[in-house]
Amino acid sequence: MVHKEEQDRKFNILIVVVSTSRTAESDTSGDALLKVFRGRGHSVRKVICSDDEAQIREAFESNPGNEIFIFVGGTGPSRKDVTVQSLRKIANKEMIGFGEMFRKESGQVFAYLSNSTLLIKDRMQIYCIPGSPDATSTSFTLINSIMGHVYHELNKE
Fold it and tell me: Cα–Cα 20 to 30 A to 130, which of 64, 81, 96, 113?
């Protein structure tokens, strides 16, 4: 059940593009997410970091005040893809159902090679999603539909 206050809540969102090749000029996936979440009235910023555990964790830890973090990229089978493994070390909980939903909704065979997931750190939501434009579009729909409910569950007494 989604409550009206959950649907109307505006969040502080940080999009972290994890890539060794994307730059502010060449990133389209992070920009697309930024645009659609801002279009819904959320406060959204974007940063780019390398596929490096220290930089990934620094991107999270040095940006307080965000309720939602969306890490874009670094979720595949490449040995350079370390996003999820890096963030699991600081998370309190993992909601693997998000990744299952993503793979089902994607309908693409390669989505099953993605380590897409939702991690929880205290009251913060940390989404880890693939970096392809199709994946970010699918992920936006899923994140947008559940983030209010997850927020409610994390903050209720």
Answer: 64
> What are the structural domain ranges in the chain?
4-155
Closest CA to 72 of 124, 134, 122: 134
pTM above 0.85, yes or no: yes
Structurally, at CATH architecture level, domain 4-155 sits in 3-Layer(aba) Sandwich (3.40)
Give the contacts of 30 (CB within 8 A, at least 6 positions apart).
15, 17, 22, 46, 48, 72, 136
68 close to 124: Cβ distance less than 8 angstroms: yes
pLDDT in tens, 23-70: 788 899 999 999 999 999 999 999 999 999 999 999 999 999 999 999
Sign of the alpha-carbon torsion through 2, 157, 139, 33: positive
In this structure, are residues 72 and 66 in contact, taking their beta carbons and an 8 Å threshold?
no
